[in-house]
Structures are given as structure tokens and as C-alpha cells.
Amino acid sequence: MIGAAMWAVAAACLSGAWMVNRKMWQGQATWCATNIALVAYNLWIGSYPQAGLFAAYLFLSTWGCIKWLREKRREGAK
After folding, report:
1. Which CA distances in Å does 2 have to 13, 42, 45, 60?
2. DSSP 8-state class, residue 1
3. Residue 78 three-state SS
4. Measured distance CA(26)–CA(34) in Å, rounded
5. What is the DSSP letter of 46?
6. Would you state the pLDDT for residue 1?
7. Domain ranges across the chain
8. 47 in helix, strand or coil?
9. pLDDT value, residue 78
10. Are 19 and 4 in contact (CB under 8 A)?
């Protein structure tokens, strides 16, 4: 069951990359969700360096999402 779930997370990561490539903020939100799943999974299996890496990715994707939303608000205010 975990293997199938990780394949689903991997597919979601790829869809997030596709959306970011197309300048869609939803890609960052997708990455936030998948990074949370990957942090939890890696903590569960005891892979702490990998969990740390995905926690850093979570920070970066959250920051990217906030930045994009702020830019969209600014564009809408014009």
C-alpha cells in the first residue's frame, strides 16, 4: 500500500513541476502538499537526511506560493 501511495506522490510531484513550468501557482501548492507527504514518509522510515531535504523543499515551495500570490494580488490592484 505504501508503495502505491509513493507512486501517487511521485506523479503529483511531476504534475506540480509541469504546472510551475507553465507559471501556474497551483504547482507550488501541489509541491507543498507532496513535500509534506514526503517529509512524513521519510521520518516514518527513519531517513532523517531525506526528511530534512524535503522540509527544505517545503519551505521553498511555500515561499514560492506566497510570492506568486502576492504578485497576482499586485497585478489585480493595477
Report:
1. 16, 12, 11, 26
2. -
3. coil
4. 12
5. T
6. 59
7. 23-77
8. coil
9. 59
10. no
Instruction: For residues 29 and 64, give the distance between their C-alpha atoms in angstroms, rounded to a whole number.
Output: 9
For residue 36, count other CB atoms closer than 10 A to its CB: 16
C-alpha cell read off for 40:
512524513
DSSP for 4-33? HHHHHHHHHHHHHHHHHHTT-HHHHHHHHH
Cα-Cα-Cα-Cα torsion 72, 29, 67, 19, nearest 10 degrees, comes to: -70
Q: What is the CA angle 63-76-29, rounded to 5?
A: 30
Q: For each of the chain's 78 residues, which pLDDT tens digit applies?
A: 578 888 999 999 999 999 989 988 888 889 999 999 999 999 999 999 999 999 999 999 899 888 888 888 888 865
CA 68 to CA 70: how far, in whole Å? Answer: 5
